[in-house]
Design goal:
It is found in: Cytoplasm. The chain is mainly β. It contains one helix and 16 strands.
């Protein structure tokens, strides 16, 4: 039987099951009463791992939650079509399918063969975690012009091979491979 977690013991970035769905605790705040006999309350900002919905909810400190049946597996990106995106589980060699809604804008950071973490709930894929950095080639960017720094802007837009548009320093040229931080979509360096 899965262990039970008290609301007061929820950890930031930890997982718990609420209303038959897996949730991730984004933030928590504990309110202790000043009067005798008052209830200690735990305000939790949480994200549904299946739908992506974010919710603020207040629980009594002693409320209990099950640990969700969550697992993360290593997988490599194969391709996408109208039915979704396909990944190859690296341990079972099973093909996993994620819908467009589950993918969000992650496709902008994926090339064939990119390694990701697929999140599964009760054995079914529900989402993915991208690597911290990806290396992509700049497909198009305007050439730097002398004096561009006078406006205070020292970056320019660049279109990557995946179609994503990011801001890069002026010295970066078309055809170069750069490193991008997947969470913030920011330039992290040349490769």
């Amino acid at each position: 039987m899965a262990a039970l977690i008290d609301a007061i013991n929820l950890k930031r970035k930890g997982f718990f099951e609420f209303e038959n769905a897996p949730w991730r605790c984004l933030d928590k705040d504990i309110s202790t009463p000043t009067a005798r006999g008052g209830q200690t309350l735990v305000r939790v900002k949480m994200r549904n791992m299946v739908t992506g919905a974010v919710l603020d909810k207040t629980f009594k400190a002693e409320e209990k939650f099950n640990e969700p049946d969550l697992e993360s597996v290593d997988a490599s990106y194969l391709y996408s079509d109208s039915d979704g995106s396909y990944f190859l589980d690296q341990s079972t060699f099973e093909t996993l399918n994620l819908s467009e809604a589950m993918m969000g804008d992650a496709l902008e950071m994926l090339l064939e063969g990119t390694m990701v973490q697929i999140n599964k709930y009760n054995g079914n894929p529900i989402g993915l975690d991208l690597p911290q950095f990806v290396e992509l080639v700049i497909e198009y960017t305007e050439p730097a012009v002398r004096g561009d720094t006078s406006s205070g802007s020292v970056t320019k837009e660049a279109k990557l091979e995946t179609g994503a548009i990011v801001r890069v320093p002026l010295f970066v040229k078309e055809g170069e491979k750069i490193k991008i931080t997947t969470e913030s979509r920011e330039f992290a360096g040349r490769v």
